[in-house]
Design a protein that fits this description.
316 residues, alpha/beta, Rossmann fold, 2 domains, 5-stranded parallel sheet, 11 helices, binds 2-keto-D-gluconic acid
Length: 316
Amino acid sequence: MEKILITRRLPDPVLDAARARFDVTLRDDTTPMSAAELADAMAQYDGILPTLGDQLTADAFVGDLKCRVLANFGVGYNHIDVTAARGAGVAVSNTPGAVTDATADIAMTLMLMTCRRAGEGERLVRAGQWAGWHPTQLLGQHVSGKTVGIVGLGRIGKAIARRCHFGFGMDVVFYNRSQVADPGVPAQQLNSLTDVANACDVLIVALPATPETHHMINVSVFAAMRPTAVFVNIARGDIVDETALIDALQSGQIAGAGLDVYEFEPKVPQALRALENVTLFPHLGTATLEVRTAMGMMAVDNLVAFFDGRDLPNPV
Ligand code: 8YV
């Protein structure tokens, strides 16, 4: 029986499925693995089911490795040096599809909360400081019929476009590196990121983090946005130059932001926490029991396929 390490506690059905087929070690700790722990795991286990925060950098792929497959829990695998893994003969899989709807839902939550000042309102009530309704209190931005700009029209970007178009009657413009033949809704692909930033009321980032997308959302993108526009990030924090975002918010260059991810997660700058017009989530993207179960099952399916000698269903 192959020895598998699962690096965080996952929902019970996932652990049961893994245990039915493998000799499973569960690392029942919520913190990311250290470099030393990872090196040790790469030498001891046949396969690992890692997740966000487990920094599998090039160093993890040197030496005498027992591990032949990493079945990542999550669609984003920017914490894994896939080139180094490939060089060392270690296969890598991820969990696309399972995360799409939940992540798009979180984008909608952040868009609505930020545009409608829901966080501010919630804090007011919770603080016992709500003196009563009046017609000009906490006026936010109407979302219906506005324009959303989506950066990256992959699976999650398209799910966001559907929600915005069918749910809120929004016009959809988007930026995507390659031409998108079927956006799934009436939508306009614009030539540049700054064109999209300039054309929309809500700008939503739905790209993977890669060396190419690092700080892709920078000073010039915020400068192109409208002063009434809201910025939303559900992808990865380092796609955004967080210092530039803070400057844009503080100077009123943009109206607000809704963030599920941060450049130096889990560090959230005090400057962001101090701003009322910012909605801050602790990377809630896929945080539902059903979705985390589906993600885990997908990761286990990839391990089973690998050790049964079949092709990985979700190779990266
Ligand atoms: C996951 C995510 O919960 O799937 C992803 O890439 O960003 C999250 O929603 C997390 O990455 C689990 O590893």
